[in-house]
UniProtKB/TrEMBL annotation:
GO cellular component: prefoldin complex
Region (Disordered): 118-148
Domain of life: Eukaryota
Record organism: Fagus sylvatica (Beechnut)
Bias kind Basic and acidic residues: ranges: 118-134
SUPFAM superfamilies assigned: Prefoldin
Keyword Coiled coil: yes
Protein name per its UniProtKB record: Prefoldin subunit 2
InterPro entries: PFD2, PFD_beta-like, Prefoldin
PANTHER family: PREFOLDIN SUBUNIT 2
Annotated GO MF terms: unfolded protein binding
Keyword Lipid biosynthesis: no
Record Gene3D superfamilies: 1.10.287.370
GO biological process, one term: response to cold
Length: 148
């Protein structure tokens, strides 16, 4: 068990090992960025749902997707659950942002230690145009039982 921890902190032997470790670190950084983006989109969706259902009658029925199953509830029951989920997602995003900063610092130290410079061809952009859709969890509000 101790040997695995020693392997992670051992100095790379040659240029190829340094390049491989650097590529692994950059890949981890990109995965963190992707997860943060995905979760921020979910937070945004939760906010949209909350803004849509808050002004409605609390006894009005709505439908919520929970684990792939559509369940019927009232707005009074759904709103606090959506709020809790949003707060949980915001906490996870905050922790991921902390991890992101640590990883950036680690990469910067690695770059300076091994004098790594990145060459990018002209015209290459770093846009993330293909963003993922949100999860399948959502809320549907049914028609009002009375006249509005």
């Amino acid at each position: 068990m101790a040997s695995k921890a020693e392997d992670d902190h051992r100095e790379p032997i040659n240029e190829q090992a340094v390049a491989n470790k650097y590529a692994t670190m950059r890949n981890e950084l990109n995965q963190i960025y992707s997860k943060i983006t995905e979760l921020e989109m979910e937070v945004s969706e939760h906010s949209l749902v909350m803004n849509a259902i808050q002004p409605l009658d609390p006894s009005r029925r709505c439908f919520r997707m929970i684990g792939g199953v559509l369940v019927e509830r009232t707005i009074k029951e759904v709103l606090p659950a959506v709020q809790r989920n949003k707060e949980g997602l915001e906490e996870v995003v905050a922790r991921l942002n902390e991890g992101l900063e640590k990883k950036k610092k680690e990469i910067a130290e690695f770059e300076s230690k091994y004098k790594i410079r990145i060459r990018k061809p002209d015209g290459e952009s770093n846009d993330d145009g293909g963003r993922k859709e949100g999860s399948a969890q959502g809320v549907l509000v049914g028609p009002a039982s009375g006249s509005e």
